[in-house]
Amino acid sequence: MAKILAFAGSNSSTSINYKLVKFTVSELDNHQVQLINMANFPFPMYSSDFETEHGYSNSLVELMKDINNAQGLILSVNEHNGNPSAYFKNVLDWLSRINRNFLDGTKVFLMATSPGKGGAKHALEVVSKMLPRFGAEIITDYSLPSFLENFDDGIINSELKEKHQTALQAFLTSL
User: Fold this and answer.
1) Is residue 8's pLDDT more than 90?
2) Number of C-beta neighbours around residue 6 at 10 A
3) CA distance linking residue 56 with residue 60, whole number of Å
4) What is the helix (H) or strand (E) element at residue 35, kind and residue range?
5) Please, what is the average pLDDT of the chain?
6) How confident is the model over 36-75, as pLDDT tens digits?
7) How many Å from the N-terminal Cα to the C-terminal Cα in the chain?
8) Theoretical Cys-Cys bridge with 18: which of 8, 50, 144, 161, CB 3.0 to 4.6 Å?
9) Using an 8 Å Cβ cutoff, are 165 and 27 in contact?
10) What are the backbone dihedrals phi and psi of residue 122, each rounded to the nearest 5 degrees, phi first?
11) Average pLDDT score over residue span 114-134
12) Closest CA relative to residue 87, chosen from 16, 15, 19, 10
């Protein structure tokens, strides 16, 4: 039984990426899963001056502990103008200040979704190149296009659901 941490890289209270993560973890059996809603974690914009004056927040330190205690990470990133959100990039900036290799040895199932047909693939590509810099091993990825048409308490398009299941199984096999 592996310890898996799951969250979306979005701070929106109505995040479709969080809905995709919740669905994904609902498909898991025989694993210890911790699901985090990042909408509950406001982090100030990173600056070295702020870090010097205030240090690291308790929320950030706890998130780091959660990451360090997990063998695997299920992460879904949102897309703003073809890139991951500023919120998610900011979280990475803060975590890397505590430990540059904060994802060392962590296996990642990376996902993304959007209302559009692109399925946030641009953000997915950017993040898939960023996370290994912090030590992550991207096992597989998955993009769900047209979220509003393809998701209703789960993935309703059979071909997209099969691709999701295949990616999830590849991730679980790696743990």
Assistant:
1) yes
2) 22
3) 6
4) strand 32-36
5) 97
6) 999 999 999 999 999 999 999 999 999 999 999 999 999 9
7) 9
8) 8
9) yes
10) -65, -45
11) 98
12) 10
Listed in sequence order, the residues at least 6 apart from 35 whose beta carbon sits closer than 8 Å to its beta carbon are: 6, 7, 21, 22, 25
Question: Which of 20, 10, 37, 14 lies closest to 119, judged by CA?
Answer: 20
- Average pLDDT on 9-13 reads 97
SS3 string of 75-140?
EEECEECCEECHHHHHHHHHHHHHCCCCCCCCEEEEEEECCCCCCCHHHHHHHHHHHHHHCCEEEE
Contact 5, 72 (CB under 8 A): yes
Predicted model pTM: 0.97
What is the Cα–Cα distance from 115 to 104, expressed in whole angstroms?
Answer: 32
The amino acid sitting at 154 is G
Burial class (CB in 10 A: 0-12, 13-18, 19+), 27: middle
Residue 153 has pLDDT above 90, yes or no: yes
